[in-house]
Amino acid sequence: MRVIATAKSVRITSRKAKLVADSVIGLPVAEALAVLSFTPRHAAKEVAKVIKSAAANAEHNYNLEASSLRVDRIDVDQAGIMKRFIPKPRGMAGSLFKRMSHLRCYVTDEEPAPDRRRRSVVAMPGRSGGQGSTRPAATRRRRPAQLRRAQEAATAAAATATEEEALEVPETTAGDEIETQETDALDPGAAEADAGEAEADAAQDDEEKD
C-alpha cells in the first residue's frame, strides 16, 4: 500500500531538492533518515521532514508497520517565486528570485520489483550481512584482492589434500604383498612346481606350432 505526504512551498529550489531526494529513493525509511542526517546539504532537512510525515501517515492512519516501510518515490515540483530586488550601482536595482518547491513523498510496504531493488547503504542494527549489506555473504561482490586470496587458499588446500592422499598406503594391499612374499620364501617346492608347469606349457605350445 502506498501512502503519500506533501510539503508545499518549501524554501528550497527544485534542482537542489532533487539531488538529495534521488539519493534515498528505494531505501527503507529508517535508512533514508540516517543517510539524510549525515548529508551536508540544506535540502536534506526538508526531505527528511516529508519522509517522516509520510511514515507517520502510514503508521497512524493505515496501521502499517514502520519497520516495513520504504521510500518508493519523491516528486519535486517547482512552486511560486518570491521576487525581490538587490541594489545595483548608479541607483539601479537587480532582480532576486527566491524559488520554492513542492515535495511529495510516497512510502510503501510492498516488496520492490527485482529491477528496482536497491542495496542498503547503512548498516542498521539487528540486520545481518554487516557493512550495510542485506545480501548473503556468498552472493556479495568481492574485490580483486579478496578473490585472489580465496583462489590461493583453495589451491593450497587442494595441494595439501593431494599430498595426503599420496602418502596414504592401503593396509590390505601391503599385508597381501607381505604374506605372498613370506609364503614364497617358506615353500620353495611350490615355487619350483610353478616353474616346472610353466616350462611344460611353453614346450606344449612349441609342439602345437610345429
Describe the structure.
The protein has 210 residues and is an alpha+beta fold. It has two domains: 2-111 and 120-126, Alpha-Beta Complex (Ribosomal Protein L22, Chain A); 171-209. It contains six helices and three strands, in the order βαααββααα. The chain has helices spanning 14-21, 29-37, 43-61, 144-167, 171-186, 188-209, and strands at 2-10, 70-87, 93-108. It has a three-stranded antiparallel beta sheet. Helix 1 (14-21) crosses helix 3 and helix 2 (29-37) packs antiparallel against helix 3. The protein is elongated, with a radius of gyration of 41 Å.
List keywords for this structure.
single chain; 210 residues; alpha+beta; Ribosomal Protein L22, Chain A; 2 domains; 3-stranded antiparallel sheet
Topology:
Layout: E1 2-10, H1 14-21, H2 29-37, H3 43-61, E2 70-87, E3 93-108, H4 144-167, H5 171-186, H6 188-209
Antiparallel strand pairs: 1-3, 2-3
Helix pairs in contact: 1-3, 2-3
> What is the molecular shape?
elongated
Give the N-to-C terminal Cα separation: 101 Å
Number of domains: 2
Q: How many individual β-strands? A: 3
CATH structural architecture of the largest domain: Alpha-Beta Complex
CATH superfamily of the largest domain: Ribosomal protein L22/L17
* Unreliable stretches covering 5 or more consecutive residues: 128-137
Average pLDDT number: 79
Look at the helices and sheets and give the structural class.
Answer: alpha+beta
- The CATH class name of the largest domain reads Alpha Beta
What is the beta-strand fraction? 15-25%
- The helix fraction, in percent, is 40-55%
User: What kind of sheet is the major sheet?
Assistant: 3 strands, antiparallel
- Tell me the number of helical segments per DSSP (H or I, 4 or more residues long): 6
> What topology, given as strand order, has the largest sheet?
1-3-2
Write the element-wise H/E pattern from the N-terminal end onward: EHHHEEHHH
